[in-house]
UniProtKB/TrEMBL annotation:
Keyword Signal: yes
Localization of this protein: Secreted, Cell wall
InterPro entries: Glyco_hydro_28 (IPR000743), Pectin_lyas_fold (IPR012334), Pectin_lyase_fold/virulence (IPR011050)
Keyword presence, Glycosyltransferase: no
EC number: 3.2.1.15
Protein name: endo-polygalacturonase
Species name: Rhamnella rubrinervis
GO biological process: carbohydrate metabolic process; cell wall organization
Domain of life: Eukaryota
Keywords: Cell wall, Cell wall biogenesis/degradation, Glycosidase, Hydrolase, Repeat, Secreted, Signal
């Protein structure tokens, strides 16, 4: 909690908007909520040391995939063995599905569906590997390889690896070769329609497309997960969150060819802590509003991150023609190294072979805090707020920003963006327009309690 900051911003808002403005009140409400979105930290997380099965097992029932005929030789097809093992663990209380260390288990696309008996643990210590030939992929599973759904209270953990063998999929992407058709590829690991899920320590790599998708779920905790794919592998988002609430990502190291984290429609209360990102396209909210869709994303906090050599840093991207809103986002304590667009809000996002027409409708972006963001930028425009003429971005709050370019000057670009700067802001962001032109800028030292006393909030 950083109450002092809250109060400082409150003071400034009052200076800018006047005491009684409903708007200031709404802003403060949201900012207050944002501040209370602090992480309940899990202290036993260690990237490389997972609590051993034996010490945790107690009276658990161990179900080894090898006892259902799985062979970890990298070539035998283990799909049926895994599905049979799943049937057993899912229907046995307090059971542990074990993928033993050392083996490489080839598994085709499969759905592992709940509901299951309580206290299920999936212990992945070996490697699960996908068949690498897109032409032989079962079209029934065109968007997911390992799909877990309808689970309640399941722990996934281990030192194992989920490997999508994605290289042929990448080569077949229209992003790699324009003569290829643009079609989706499977995500490696999906948690869908589930709740109270914990994932600890697993590595997910070389996915066909997105690595780890959290969809239609709530209360999902992800600790110490690593995601790895080449920086030029197309659309290989690290962790993608859609229509999910109460999600925590902590101590994750992600390097891929697309967003390290992407958060899209229907997601709220998303907290990220200590995220390492690079290579990749940064930490993104969006894209949102494609094909005139409505999208809502609220309450997203990133606290402590290190981004290295990514194309974007902290990004919100929306398509023209969408509707809905992004409200209440805080990015703080982020260090960047050689990031191309460190801070970017882009309401003209267009990831399409044809140009996108401007439209009057847009996803409304408001109440976005960037606090204590420093490091180096590769482009001159260290901060970019490109917002819609008809739906301007509002209440962008910058506080203590220091972005430098190794060999040159930096600047902030604004179009139709309104906000406020607080503390040191480099490059300066004077182009963020206040809605009320008659504001009196207060001195930007620590606020006194006076600012609060005189309010009627
Ligand atoms: C957006 O998310 C909401 C809430 O989960 C859902 O009802 C809606 O169908 C989603 N819209 C799209 C276009 O996916
Ligand atoms: C600013 O962020 C950095 C991480 O990038 C952190 O080490 C530092 O403590 C933060 N400063 C403050 C005043 O919170
Ligand atoms: C859309 O609007 C923006 C901002 O006014 C402008 O810079 C851009 O050129 C327009 N794009 C198109 C395709 O008209
Ligand atoms: C966008 O949201 C802000 C804050 O809720 C609101 O004041 C503004 O009117 C909205 N803009 C549009 C075009 O709806």
């Amino acid at each position: 909690m950083d109450k002092l900051f809250m109060l400082s911003v409150l003071g400034l808002f009052i200076a800018v908007y006047g005491v009684a403005g409903n708007m200031a009140y709404d802003n403060m409400g949201m900012l207050g909520e944002l501040e209370s979105l602090d992480m309940e930290e899990e202290n036993d997380v260690d990237l490389f040391e997972i609590p051993s099965l034996t010490s945790e097992r107690g009276n658990k029932v161990l179900v080894n995939v090898e006892s259902f005929g799985a062979v970890g030789d990298g070539v035998s097809d283990n799909t049926q063995a895994f599905l049979k093992a799943w049937e057993t663990v899912c229907s046995t209380p307090k059971s542990v599905l074990l993928v033993p260390p050392g083996g490489r288990y080839l598994v085709n696309a499969a759905r592992f569906e709940g509901p299951c008996q309580s206290n299920l643990v999936i212990q992945i210590d070996g490697t699960l590997v996908a068949p690498d030939e897109p032409k032989q992929w079962d079209p029934k599973f065109s968007r997911a390889w390992l799909d877990f759904s309808k689970l309640n209270g399941v722990l996934f953990q281990g030192n194992g690896v989920i490997d999508g063998s994605g290289s042929k999929w990448w080569a077949a992407s229209c992003k790699k070769d324009k003569s290829n058709p643009c079609k989706g590829a499977p995500s490696a690991f999906t948690i869908d329609s589930s709740q109270a899920i914990k994932i600890k320590g697993i590595t997910i790599q070389n996915s066909q497309q997105m690595h780890f998708v959290i969809s239609r779920s709530h209360s999902v905790r992800v600790y110490g997960v690593q995601v790895t794919a080449p920086g030029d592998s197309p659309n290989t988002d690290g962790i993608h969150i859609t229509q999910s609430t109460d999600v925590i990502l902590q101590d994750c190291k992600i390097g891929t060819g697309d967003d390290c984290v992407s958060i899209v429609n229907g997601s709220s209360n998303i907290k990220m802590k200590r995220i390492f990102c690079g290579p990749g396209h940064g930490i993104s909210i969006g894209s949102l509003g494609k094909d005139n869709s409505k999208a809502v994303v609220t309450s997203v906090v990133l606290d402590t991150a290190y981004l290295r050599e990514t194309t974007n840093g902290l990004r919100i991207k929306t398509w023209q023609g969408g509707s809905g809103y992004v409200r209440g986002v805080r990015f703080q304590d982020v260090k960047m190294e050689d990031v191309s667009n460190p801070i970017i809000i882009d309401q003209f996002y267009c990831d399409s072979p044809t140009t996108c027409q401007n439209q009057t409708s847009a996803v409304n972006i408001t109440q976005v805090v960037f606090r204590n963001i420093s490091g180096t930028t590769k482009s001159e425009k260290a901060m970019k707020f490109a917002c819609s003429d008809t739906v301007p971005c509002s209440n962008i709050i910058l506080s203590n920003i220091n972005l430098e370019k190794k060999d040159g000057t930096v600047e902030t670009y604004c179009h139709s963006a309104q906000g406020i700067g607080y503390g040191t802001i480099h490059p300066s962001a004077d182009c963020l327009k206040f809605q009320d032109k008659d504001y009196i800028l207060m001195d930007q030292t620590e606020p006194t309690s006076q600012h609060i006393v005189h309010t009627e909030l």
